[in-house]
Specification:
membrane, transmembrane helix, globular, transmembrane, Integral membrane protein, PaxB-like, 7 helices
Length: about 250
């Protein structure tokens, strides 16, 4: 026996092998409905904000990894019947965000040519698709919950990094932040109802909710600092003299 003894013993049965908990279908849809709708609204509002500011509204790397997740789990992998149409609807809307990413995303990478940026985007999408396929297959994760939950943590952090990197509210709005937060909140409860004994999900979604709330506060303060209303629907782009978007990229 190794000294000192382990503080936490491993379970006899890995939680990942446990089946979904029994739950009424109406409870699933009460939780999953706002989750799916919240994300669709967040996507739509991000597209609208990006058109106004000419800056992508979703962090570039998140667009790539998220698009690959939605693509593989709606068109490639065997998926739970109830989840497939939701993933497909997200994927179709995300295609518009990808288009905006190719048009505006290079502004977050001023030291990179637009050609190199495009190669990076499609390279990350391809790698992420393979990763999602292999991970989902390895875990036999028919609902994509493990990769999706991990992606959600990465997404939430990326919004804060994007705000810090840009130093302004360009491409961002409180409405996107709130819609994303609502979608993630109900996603968490959906997962916890389906898999109540999975402590990893409890930890990850508490992390997501905390980060989402932090981002809302930081974005609100930034917009106020810029002298504008965080709730103005058609507020103009923030004036940032050193914004790399005013530079001409090498094609």
């Amino acid at each position: 026996m190794w000294f000192p003894p382990a503080l936490i013993d491993l379970p006899n049965v890995a939680p990942v092998t446990l089946p979904e908990a029994d739950r009424p279908s109406w409870l699933f849809w009460i939780l999953m409905g706002p989750c799916a709708s919240g994300w669709l609204v967040a996507y739509g509002l991000a597209i609208y904000r990006a058109k106004l500011d000419k800056r992508v509204g979703i962090p570039v790397f998140v667009v790539e990894v998220n698009l690959a997740w939605e693509f593989t789990l709606s068109l490639i992998l065997d998926q739970a019947d109830v989840q497939r149409p939701i993933n497909l609807s997200w994927f179709l809307v995300d295609c518009f965000i990808l288009r905006q990413t190719l048009a505006y995303g290079w502004k977050d990478y001023p030291g990179m040519s637009r050609r190199a940026f495009r190669w990076m985007v499609f390279g990350v999408i391809a790698w992420s698709a393979v990763f999602h396929i292999m991970t989902t297959y390895e875990l036999k994760d028919a609902t994509g919950i493990y990769t999706g939950t991990g992606l959600n943590v990465f997404l939430s952090l990326s919004f804060i990094f994007m705000l810090s990197r840009r130093g302004s509210s360009l491409g961002q709005s409180m409405y996107v932040a709130l819609a994303k937060g609502i979608g993630s909140f109900f996603a968490g409860w959906t997962v916890l109802v389906m898999y109540p004994g999975h402590h990893l999900f409890i930890f990850l979604f508490l992390t997501v909710w905390t980060i989402d709330a932090t981002y809302c506060v930081l974005l609100y303060r930034k917009v106020r600092e810029e002298g504008r209303s965080p709730w103005a629907w058609n507020r103009g782009p923030a004036e940032v003299p050193d914004d790399p978007g005013v530079l001409t990229a090498v094609r």
